[in-house]
Amino acid sequence: MFSGQHAERQGSKVARSLLSIVIMVLVVFGLSRLLNTFVFGAYEIPSGSMEDTIEVGDLVFSEKLSYYTSEPQKGDIVTFADPLVSNRTLIKRVIATGGQTVDLQNGKVVVDGVVLDEPYTENKVSEPFEKTAVSISYPYTVPEGCLWVMGDNRTNSQDSRYFGAIDASSVTGHAVFTYWPIPHIGVLS
């Protein structure tokens, strides 16, 4: 009789242990999903449009909390839903916000009549595209509730010069940190 009770208790312990493991895995998965949905996103950079600020293959964290209480600002590096391809996220720098006027003059970006100081472009020229997805003429006034975004690698970036201003509500986060590879680890600015 004793061995039967012992086996029953052992079976009960194993079942409780398995149930504990399953619950722990579900809690970890749920917390991870909540953090990814509301706090931060992790992205792998697929193209050279933000070089040399962010390189192809870099892994970047994009935080979401700051945009719950404020709007993206000029200079922020943002992740956003691609306006042309569904289920694809892009990463670019905010150049102008709603109501501001963007112009491209002599290879430079001019916002509200002031030539931008953009050391992150490494003096690459900022020219309009000949072929675009939407009709854009310069100077261009960014509609309210929208953002003008451009890649830092101006000669290799399909950005607002190609697809126009993006809706600010399409922004999914503020890219703040490169966490891989090791030589590229650091805060984005």
UniProtKB/TrEMBL annotation:
Key word Protease present: yes
The coiled-coil segments of this chain are none
Q: What is this protein called?
A: Signal peptidase I
The places in or outside the cell where this protein is found are: Cell membrane; Membrane
Question: What superkingdom heads the lineage?
Answer: Bacteria
Q: How does it sit in the membrane?
A: Single-pass type II membrane protein
NCBIfam families reported in the protein's UniProt record: sigpep_I_bact
EC number(s) recorded for this UniProt protein: 3.4.21.89
Q: Which PANTHER family match?
A: CHLOROPLAST PROCESSING PEPTIDASE, SIGNAL PEPTIDASE I
Classification from the root reads: Bacteria, Bacillati, Actinomycetota, Coriobacteriia, Eggerthellales
Question: Which CDD domains does UniProt cross-reference here?
Answer: S26_SPase_I
Q: Which residues cross the membrane?
A: 21-43
So which residues are the signal peptide here?
Answer: none
Keyword Hydrolase carried by entry: yes
Q: Which SUPFAM superfamilies match?
A: LexA/Signal peptidase
In this chain the Peptidase S26 domain maps to 20-180
Keyword list (alphabetical) reads: Hydrolase, Membrane, Protease, Transmembrane, Transmembrane helix
InterPro entries per the UniProt record, alphabetical: LexA/Signal_pep-like_sf, Pept_S26A_signal_pept_1, Pept_S26A_signal_pept_1_CS, Pept_S26A_signal_pept_1_Lys-AS, Peptidase_S26
Catalysed transformations (reactions): Cleavage of hydrophobic, N-terminal signal or leader sequences from secreted and periplasmic proteins
GO biological process annotations for this chain's record?
Answer: signal peptide processing
Catalytic site positions: S49, K92
Which cellular components does GO assign to this protein? Answer: plasma membrane
User: Record's family?
Assistant: Belongs to the peptidase S26 family.
Its Gene Ontology molecular function terms?
serine-type endopeptidase activity; signal peptidase activity
